[in-house]
Backbone:
């Protein structure tokens, strides 16, 4: 992302002029790089450099702040022959020795697992293709982080589902019992590792990452491969094929994994009659079933609905899933859907939202009307900030504070006010038809899908716990937690 | 619940950066945002065309933290390279202090005598004061200032550490 911002004239900078703001100062901490353009002649080169920086290495946002007098000045524009940066040259090609060491560990492993993240998505579709090929060659199981969903098809038997706090039992148990973890474009986030001193105690670790600072930051690893995820995976495939390796028999390993799978950790209790309230998990599954074959782009806000979407919506290709993972910002999903729809005007773009998160940026409904974008918003409306409430149940003996909403707007009326179509789904019997209507209705649609209010997101690793200490169902919740665990929430 | 920070050893980092506005704020912002220590930081333009600056940072932390500091500095866009001078082999460190001492009689004579022992130069004098210029390692400067406290110390200015690896090679 490259952001262009307007600044007061260069002569006024530093004088507290009308609407002056130190944009490079306040964006320094949330951008990869930023510029204040003081000379019109520099504007052209800076624009090229900004796109180079935003897209090379670990991608990130770049801000270019342009004073008013620079905006209106006339200057020379020269198309650069080659776009490069004088100091920023991230390592893309992996080191051959590191690849050889990684391959030796992969070949020797008896209980390997691939743990892949958003880096595989960021490395482009070829990286996902390489990942599928390498997993297929080795026959090893694979799990992905929230940001990595879609790099590997969810209907493949080698796929164990997402790992981490709301990951599957089988993915977390396999991480815990593995003797080799191959981390690709993932960064051992605290939501993924759980309690660090109990994280993957028996495993050697290979870490492939384009960002050197991600390596050994949280978990010390045995082999570090710095480079683009796709290039590193290609290099591993080439090394595998060159040596003529054959997939090992991981039979015993798969038998253990199948045992964990048998817990069916994503199952949830529900009533089946048409008048029954809708379980949020059911709503996501119904949305998934109704959009199969349409290759939708799904965005989410942040909270329980996001985790249910991650658990129950299956992805089979990269770049179909836009969500805010590491930062976890409510309000991300709707603007992301707007962006995705502008980039792909003919695709089905659905924002799976919570009724609270959606209101963070609900004014963008006007943007959608103005640009005539057919964005669909599917609200899992439980009238709570559900994830906050879930933690208050777990951590503070259900002393709820600011997690309830007594002042929700009528989303159907709001849709009408903005010229959208609004639908409301109240019961299980209305679910399928409601979703079908949403998909078939041209233009933007908001669906207020009322779901069971008190459903919580399981399975989960409570904070400060290990992968092996998953809470599988609500009855496992104790409602107390020591200070060490509370501090990690 | 105990909240502790791990102690660690002292490292001197030489960081070559683009000589442009905001770079120092980026570096210091990184240290404060990630909770790293800065014991000393010096910066000056070092190239003929004024394109590059060298920042010398003295920091401390356990080896894993020092490794993170280097990696985090290295990924900043305007940073050209980062060298841990402890890893680069033997190096020399120097710091300059200007030390103002006021007094008369025996204290004044003692201050001058100690300055001579420390090879500090007198760069300004009045009938009741001296300004000494002392160059050396931070440790030597510390010891000199400690002694001057007994001899009428009124003001100190220090540059912070600059350091460079021994031998013919550039780092």
Residues:
């Amino acid at each position: 992302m490259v952001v262009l911002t307007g600044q007061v004239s260069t002569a006024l900078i530093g004088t507290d002029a009308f609407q002056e703001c130190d944009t490079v100062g306040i964006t320094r901490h949330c951008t990869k790089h930023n510029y204040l353009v003081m000379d019109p002649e520099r504007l052209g080169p800076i624009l090229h450099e900004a796109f180079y920086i935003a897209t090379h290495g670990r991608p990130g946002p770049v801000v270019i702040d342009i004073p008013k007098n620079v905006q209106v000045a006339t200057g020379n524009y020269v198309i650069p022959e080659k776009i490069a940066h004088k100091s920023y040259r991230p390592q893309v090609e992996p080191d051959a020795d590191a690849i050889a060491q990684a391959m030796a560990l992969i070949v020797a492993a008896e209980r390997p697992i691939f743990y892949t993240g958003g880096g595989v998505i960021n490395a482009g579709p070829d990286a996902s293709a390489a990942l599928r090929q390498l997993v297929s060659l080795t026959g090893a199981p694979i799990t992905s982080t929230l940001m990595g969903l879609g790099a590997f098809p969810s209907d493949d038997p080698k796929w164990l589902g997402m790992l981490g706090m709301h990951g599957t039992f089988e993915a977390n148990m396999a991480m815990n019992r593995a003797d080799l973890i191959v981390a690709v474009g993932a960064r051992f986030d605290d939501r993924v590792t759980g309690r660090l001193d109990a994280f993957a105690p028996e495993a050697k670790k290979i870490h492939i990452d384009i960002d050197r600072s991600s390596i050994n930051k949280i978990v010390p690893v045995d082999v570090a491969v710095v480079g683009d995820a796709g290039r590193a995976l290609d290099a591993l495939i080439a090394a595998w094929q060159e040596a003529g390796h054959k997939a090992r028999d991981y039979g015993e390993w798969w038998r253990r994994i199948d045992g964990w799978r048998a817990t069916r950790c994503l199952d949830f209790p529900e009533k089946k009659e048409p008048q029954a309230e809708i379980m949020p998990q059911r709503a996501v599954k119904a949305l998934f079933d109704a959009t199969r074959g349409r290759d939708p782009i799904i965005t989410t806000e942040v909270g329980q609905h996001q985790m249910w979407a991650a658990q129950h919506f299956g992805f089979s290709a990269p770049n179909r899933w836009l969500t805010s993972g590491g930062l976890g910002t409510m309000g991300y999903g709707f603007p992301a859907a707007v962006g995705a729809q502008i980039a792909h005007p003919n695709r089905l773009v659905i924002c799976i939202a919570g009724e609270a998160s959606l209101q963070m940026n609900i004014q963008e409904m006007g943007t959608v009307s103005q640009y005539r974008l057919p964005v669909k918003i599917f609200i899992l409306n439980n009238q709570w900030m559900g994830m906050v409430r879930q933690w208050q149940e777990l951590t503070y003996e259900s002393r709820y504070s600011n997690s309830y909403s007594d002042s929700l707007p009528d989303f159907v009326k709001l849709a009408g006010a903005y010229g959208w179509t609004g639908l409301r789904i109240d019961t299980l019997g209305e679910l399928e038809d409601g979703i079908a209507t949403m998909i078939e209705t041209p233009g933007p649609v908001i669906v207020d899908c009322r779901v069971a209010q008190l459903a919580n997101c399981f399975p989960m690793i409570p904070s400060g716990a290990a992968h092996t200490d998953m809470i599988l169902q609500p009855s496992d919740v104790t409602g107390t937690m020591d200070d060490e665990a509370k501090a990690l929430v | 619940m105990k909240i502790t920070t791990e102690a660690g050893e002292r490292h001197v980092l030489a960081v070559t950066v683009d000589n442009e506005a905001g770079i120092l704020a980026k570096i210091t912002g990184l240290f404060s945002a990630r909770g790293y220590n800065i014991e000393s930081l010096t910066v000056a333009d070092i190239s003929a065309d004024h394109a590059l600056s060298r920042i010398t940072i003295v920091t401390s932390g356990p080896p894993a933290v020092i490794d993170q500091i280097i990696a985090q500095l290295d990924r900043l866009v305007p940073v050209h390279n980062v060298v841990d001078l402890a890893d680069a082999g033997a190096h020399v460190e120097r710091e300059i202090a200007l030390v103002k001492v006021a007094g008369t009689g025996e204290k004044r004579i003692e201050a001058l005598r100690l300055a001579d022992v420390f090879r500090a130069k007198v760069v300004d004098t009045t009938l009741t004061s001296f300004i000494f210029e002392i160059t050396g390692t931070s440790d030597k400067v510390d010891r000199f200032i400690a002694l001057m406290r007994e001899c009428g110390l009124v003001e100190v200015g220090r540059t912070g550490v600059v350091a460079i690896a021994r031998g013919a090679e550039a780092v």
Notes: Chain B has a mean pLDDT of 94. The helical segments of chain B are 23-33, 63-74, 106-117, 138-149.
